[in-house]
Amino acid sequence: MASEQTTEHILFITGKLAEKRLQQVLEEMQPTEFSYSIHQLGLKVAALMTGEMIQRRLHETFGADRVILPGRCRGDLDVLTTKFGIPFERGPDELKDLPAYFGKIAKRPDLSVYDLNIFAEITDAPHMSIDAILAQANYYTEEGANVIDIGCLPDTPFPHLEESIQALKAAGYQVSIDSLTEDDLLRGGKAGADFLLSLSESSLWIADQVAAQPVLIAQTHGDLASLSRAMQSLDKKGHSYYVDPILDPIHFGFTESIQRYYQVRQQHPQAKILMGVGNITELTHADTVGINAVLLGICSELEITAILATQVSRHACTAIREADRARRIMYAARKMQSLPKHIDDGLMSLHDTSPYPYRYDEIVELAAEIRDPSYRIQTSEQGIHIYNRDGLETADDPFDLFPKLDLKKEDNGHAFYLGVQLGRAQLAQQLKKRFVQDEVLDWGCLVDREQVDFNQQKAAGSTMKKSKTDSTNTTNKNTGNQSAK
Q1: What is the mean pLDDT of residues 396-422?
Q2: Domain total for the chain?
Q3: Pairwise CA distance, residues 191 & 263, whole Å
Q4: Domain of 135: which CATH number?
């Protein structure tokens, strides 16, 4: 089927259980800018398809300009492309995501670009060895930091300050020195720091003594007039600098401090502005991923080009990587003149935009087609569903399902596998997240995603292997993805 104006013909390859649903999804997408053919490859579960199977079983491409395979299909697509002479690509993991796949495939933004630098503060550097400081700098850089900020502590000796900065510079890092005392700032600047946090009207003389670029703050908190005078003084001397109006904690001037950033931008359109976000991420007991999204959105609107981030409180332990993802998303949205939606899911950690790809009635229909004993697990608004040829069971609590499952006592691996999958399904159901059998839950940028090489076959899981203490143990036959895609 196709719309009247077609630009290409696409061949969709699928399995027996998914063929009907694929046809329904494509019909619901009409009209489209492509025509299509569907080829059922002769195996039951599409997700178990491999490149080798396709080479053996696909005998024609039905005049297609390209071929779309199930998202979890394993195999070298370059080999298929060469053999058949047309491009092969993987579609979405779920059939229900096909409309979104075609809507975004040509609009995927480039998240390698951003225009805001992250200063990451090592807050207790005076108490750390140089090796420990270098290790922390390496970690922060891997998380997304551009500048390593060496934090000094009040009334705390820092005899190895100069050596620490020189070691960081020798290792290739950009470095800032962060202190309330002029002596620390002067020492840091002379040791080779790139930035000084922070100078005010009374300490501007330090900028004449060192090459470091200062971050300017008001002489007294909230005094934008003194901040403007400091800016004018350095402008006359041709010094480059950042300006920081200071972000205050919630209920201690937060809203007014946001207004200060806006006022500085209005009064100084060309100024480079830095925002210290730790007073909000550290001093608010809420998940920091959402806080960072909003703060970096403000930075994007006001064209703030640097933030100072910290990771001190345990609840803020991923604040730098969150800010890194947020700055990329906000930059892309601003350049596209769009809302920061449907650009990247990295900031979606607790919930998903589409947690249930299938309705309960669709799951019931699918379960009725199953003719083998392997258990499939899916979720919907109605609960957790587990089914095989013997029927469909639904519950909110996996323990309620246990008495209804046919689990053989000797098959420990199978029981363990189902326990893990049902536990994930329950967590996904409670948080309204997407659950996919045999896959870990997606926590956005908070947890590194496993890099899957779909050109290689998936290795057998530990529950597929026989126990070392019982060679007669029956192995789990369900660790391959058995969802009927």
Answers
A1: 90
A2: 3
A3: 35
A4: 3.20.20.20
Residues 300 and 265 in one domain: yes
Q: By three-state DSSP, how is residue 111 classified?
A: coil
Cα 303 from Cα 273, distance rounded (Å):
8
Among residues 295, 362, 372, the alpha carbon closest in space to that of 116 is found at 295
Candidates 133, 141, 121, 124; CA nearest to 277 is 121
Does residue 484 or residue 466 have the better pLDDT? 466
pLDDT digits over 24-81, tens only?
889 988 888 899 999 999 887 777 788 888 999 999 999 999 999 998 888 889 999 9
Cβ-contact 190, 175 below 8 angstroms: no
CB atoms within 10 A of CB 86: 15
143: number of Cβ within 10 Å: 19
**131 & 99 share domain:** no
Cis peptide before 31 (omega within 30 of 0): yes
Q: Compute the mean pLDDT over every residue in the chain, rounded to the nearest whole number.
A: 90
- Could you report the per-residue pLDDT of 411-459, keeping only the tens digit for each? 888 899 999 999 999 999 999 999 999 999 999 999 987 766 556 656 6
| Entry pTM | 0.81
Distances 141 to 186, 239, 300, 422 between C-alpha atoms, Å: 25, 27, 22, 37
What DSSP assignment string belongs to 220-275? STT-HHHHHHHHHHHHHHT---EE---PPPTTTTHHHHHHHHHHHHHH-TT--BEE
* Spatial distance between the Cα atoms of 368 and 138, rounded to a whole number of angstroms: 54
What domain range is 66 assigned to?
8-104
CB atoms inside a 10 Å sphere around CB 338 = 13
Distance between start and end Cα atoms, the chain: 21
The string of pLDDT tens digits covering residues 85-119 is: 999 999 988 887 888 888 755 457 889 999 999 99
